[in-house]
Structures are given as structure tokens and as C-alpha cells.
TrEMBL record:
Ranges in coiled-coil conformation: none
Transmembrane segments: 38-60, 72-93, 99-120, 155-171, 192-211, 231-250, 262-282, 302-321, 333-354, 360-381, 393-413, 425-447
Protein name: Polysaccharide biosynthesis protein
Lineage: Archaea, Thermoproteota, Thermoprotei, Thermoproteales, Thermoproteaceae
Keyword Methyltransferase: no
Keywords, sorted A to Z: Membrane, Transmembrane, Transmembrane helix
Domain of life: Archaea
């Protein structure tokens, strides 16, 4: 529990740092630079999926063999070059020719290919949570740098510095002696990761669709919504700890319920802000769009965000309950990706027609529908194992969010400069956070159990 409390604390700090950085990026960067970042994010998602051929198995191999860390370091450094090359191809096909973006792509991919984070999530969870404070401090400093040099390159440089603390922790001298053996073991799961890579490429197609429908304007809206969604940082700090614990836990369902209560509360709190005060978020992130469609898109995005929290939680649970250290496309995690790919043509068609007909709101609605379909696929694969999560977490969270759509909330905030806009929302933010917790706890037995454990820990 101490590692979870530390993770939540670091997550709250991450939220503050994220807000500071989001404001610097979304307010200062021109529309074209935001579009470049949207394209870069799609490319990096492809690099991450390619890295997954080995990184997916890092925590599972390390949970079985702690001494494999140096060998995985050597393997990761070699494999990251191939992953970055695959993503660079996507950037080139997207029409991006800025050499700096390619450099950042290779550096960030190399850092993401190191196994130190996986090692910490299994064996040094308290240290992993502590290092988050250093990363987020770098983000706060980076926000001021972005204000001075408002370009996509500056924002990406900040991401490099943020990645360094975790990447450098528990580093060993890379060793290639067992690299071939570990690569052969990881290759047994190549069919699974090929599906993950295909799913990432398929996800990148949505950027093409939105660019074709609405150009840089719709892509910039997409990026602002993406930045607003990153306010769930406290939840993301818990996820690697949950996954690391699931690999070693006896009662996996109970572990997933307790960690899921914390994860989904933070998703619910951010979604509640989107549902009840979307104009404040737009005024805070992109004030020039207050009179445009971005406000309604932000309001609709509350549902899409909460569904993405279900997806994240259920996907990690599906991986955590899989007994094999390395699995294939025929196992349940692989079948889930097959389901995603099978639904992609319908998702792309829906995204095109929804964005064409309803603009940014249609884009968000299409995202919510495709995410809900992916959640349903995973729930069906898990069968009875998913029922406690759906009944005790997901349905209560949806019920709580519905309350924020239906009930009028007091409007104590006002718009002005960034400091005024932020500080004036504090009373509303506290009220929304408290109400979200109260309603979620009233509806969810898992949340009530987690609160009792937290009370006993703090008493």
C-alpha cells in the first residue's frame, strides 16, 4: 500500500506538472506545430508497438528471472533501432521532413526500449513511484522553456529529459551473451506482437482520416483533447504497479479491483470536469477556441475518456491473468487484438462519416464507440472473470459520470489569464472531485473496500 500511496502522490504532482506543461504547449504552439505533434505521437505509438516484440515480455521474464536485466538491456538497445526505423517510415509517409523530429523519435524509442522501468515495477515499486517526482519536475521546468521557444521540437526535448530518471535507474552494463536466447523466447510471442503492431498502424490511420476531413484544424483539436485527457496522470502512476503485482498476486481479481478503484476514480474525476465544465478546460488550454466546436467536443470526450480507462484497466487485467510468460496470437490477449483489427474498417468508416457530419464532436463520438467495442471484446474473452470488474467498477463509474451530465453544477470560475483561470476553478475542482468520490463509493463496493484499506493505512 505504501508504494500505491507514493504513486498517487507522484501522480498528483504529475497532474500539476501536466497542467503547467499542457498550458505552455496548447497556448503557445501554433496550429501547425500542434499538428506536427499529433503526427509524431502516431509515429511513436508505432515505435512502441514494434518495441513490444520484446518490451511486452520484460516484466514477465524479470518476474521469473531477476538476473536477466543486463541481457535485456543489450537486447533492448539493439531492437530499438529497428523499432525507430519502422516509425520513421510512418513519419515520412505523413509528409514530415523535419530532421529534428526523426532524431527525437530515435532517442525516445531507445529510452522506451530499456527494461529498467519493467524491473522497477516488479521489484522496486517504491523507487519507481519516487522517480516520477524527478520526471515531473523536469516537465515543470520544460514548460517554461516551451514558453520561450514554442515549437514541437522543444516539447519533444522536454519529453526526453522526463524519460531519463526511470531509464537510468537500475542500469547495468548491457550484456549480449543471452540476447539470442531471450530473443528466441520473445520470438515465440511474435505472432501476438505482430497483431499489436498492426493495431498500432491501424490506430495511426485515424490521424489520416481526421487530417483528410478537417486538416490541421481537426488535428489540433485532437491534440488538445489528448492533452486534456493526460490529466489522468495519477491513475497512470498506479497502472505499472498493478500489472507488476498481478504477475505475482494470488488473488488477481481482488488486486485488480482494489487498484482499479483508484485508477478509475482519477479517470472519473477528470471526465466529470469535462462533462460539467468543458468551457473552463478550453479556456485553460486553448482560449481562442471558446466560441468554436471544441467546447462541445470536450464535453462529449468525458465518456470517451472514461471508456479508455476501462480499456486500460481491463487490458492490463487480461495480460496479468495470462499464466504463460510468453504467449501467442491464439491466447486471449492475442484474440483481443484480432478483435480490434477486425473492427478497424468499421471504426475508420465511422470516424470519417462522423467527423465529416459533426466535426470535432463526431470525432469524439466515433472514438467512444470504437473504445467501447474494444472493451466489450476483452470482457467477452475474460467471460466470468470480467463480471466482478464490470459490476463493481465499470457500471458504477458510468452511473457516477451520468450524474455530472444531468445535474447543473455551480459556476464559480471565471476566465482571464492562465493564473486567474486556474485559481478560480479550485473550488469547482474540489467540489467535483469530492462529489465524484462520494458517488463512486456509494455505487461501487470495490471503492468502499479500497477506502477502508486506505483509512487503516493512514490511521
Amino acid at each position: 500500500m505504501s508504494s500505491r500511496l507514493l504513486a498517487v502522490g507522484s501522480g498528483v504532482f504529475s497532474l500539476v506538472a501536466s497542467l503547467v506543461f499542457m498550458v505552455a504547449v496548447t497556448r503557445r504552439l501554433p496550429e501547425g506545430e500542434l499538428a506536427q505533434l499529433a503526427r509524431f505521437n502516431a509515429a511513436f505509438a508505432i515505435a512502441s508497438a514494434a518495441l513490444g516484440y520484446i518490451t511486452t515480455w520484460y516484466p514477465r521474464i524479470l518476474a521469473r528471472d531477476r538476473g536477466a536485466l543486463p541481457d535485456l538491456l543489450g537486447l533492448g538497445l539493439l531492437f530499438s533501432m529497428a523499432a525507430a526505423s519502422a516509425a520513421a517510415l510512418y513519419l515520412a509517409l505523413s509528409g514530415v521532413w523535419d530532421p529534428a523530429l526523426y532524431l527525437f523519435l530515435f532517442v525516445l524509442t531507445t529510452l522506451a526500449g530499456l527494461p529498467t522501468g519493467a524491473y522497477l515495477s516488479v521489484y522496486r515499486q517504491t523507487l519507481l513511484a519516487s522517480l516520477s517526482y524527478l520526471s515531473q519536475a523536469a516537465k515543470v521546468v520544460g514548460a517554461f522553456v516551451v514558453r520561450l521557444f514554442p515549437t514541437a521540437d522543444t516539447a519533444l526535448a522536454v519529453n526526453v529529459f522526463m524519460s531519463l530518471p526511470t531509464a537510468a535507474a537500475s542500469l547495468r552494463r548491457p550484456r549480449l551473451r543471452r540476447a539470442a536466447e531471450l530473443l528466441r523466447e520473445a520470438a515465440r510471442g511474435a505472432s501476438y506482437q505482430t497483431l499489436a503492431l498492426a493495431a498500432a498502424y491501424a490506430g495511426g490511420l485515424y490521424v489520416y482520416v481526421y487530417g483528410a476531413v478537417g486538416g490541421d484544424k481537426l488535428l489540433s483539436y485532437s491534440y488538445v483533447l489528448f492533452q486534456a485527457s493526460k490529466a489522468v496522470y495519477p491513475a497512470l502512476a498506479i497502472v505499472p504497479l498493478m500489472y507488476g503485482s498481478l504477475l505475482r498476486a494470488g488473488d488477481k481479481t481482488k488486486r485488480a479491483l482494489l487498484d482499479g478503484a483508484a485508477v478509475l476514480y482519477f479517470y472519473l474525476a477528470v471526465a466529470a470536469v469535462m462533462a460539467s465544465a468543458p468551457d473552463w478546460l478550453v479556456a485553460f488550454l486553448r482560449p481562442g477556441e471558446l466560441s468554436g466546436e471544441l467546447v462541445e467536443a470536450m464535453r462529449a470526450n468525458a465518456v470517451a475518456l472514461l471508456l479508455s480507462g476501462f480499456y486500460l484497466h481491463l487490458s492490463n487485467f487480461l495480460l496479468g491473468v495470462e499464466e504463460k510468460a510468453v504467449f501467442t496470437a491464439r491466447d486471449k490477449p492475442g484474440l483481443a487484438l484480432l478483435g480490434d483489427l477486425a473492427l478497424t474498417p468499421a471504426g475508420l468508416a465511422l470516424a470519417y462519416y462522423a467527423a465529416s457530419a459533426f466535426g470535432a464532436v463526431g470525432m469524439v463520438a466515433a472514438s467512444a464507440v470504437t473504445t467501447a467495442a474494444a472493451v466489450a471484446v476483452r470482457a467477452l474473452l475474460l467471460g466470468s472473470a470480467a463480471r466482478p470488474l464490470v459490476a463493481r467498477l465499470y457500471l458504477p463509474a458510468l452511473g457516477a459520470l451520468a450524474l455530472f451530465y444531468l445535474l447543473p453544477m455551480p459556476r464559480w470560475y471565471k476566465f482571464g489569464d492562465v493564473v486567474t483561470t486556474l485559481l478560480s476553478f479550485i473550488p469547482n475542482g474540489l467540489l467535483i472531485a469530492a462529489l465524484a468520490l462520494a458517488v463512486f463509493a456509494a455505487l461501487s463496493p470495490a471503492v468502499r473496500e479500497a477506502l477502508v484499506l486506505l483509512y487503516r493505512r493512514l490511521r
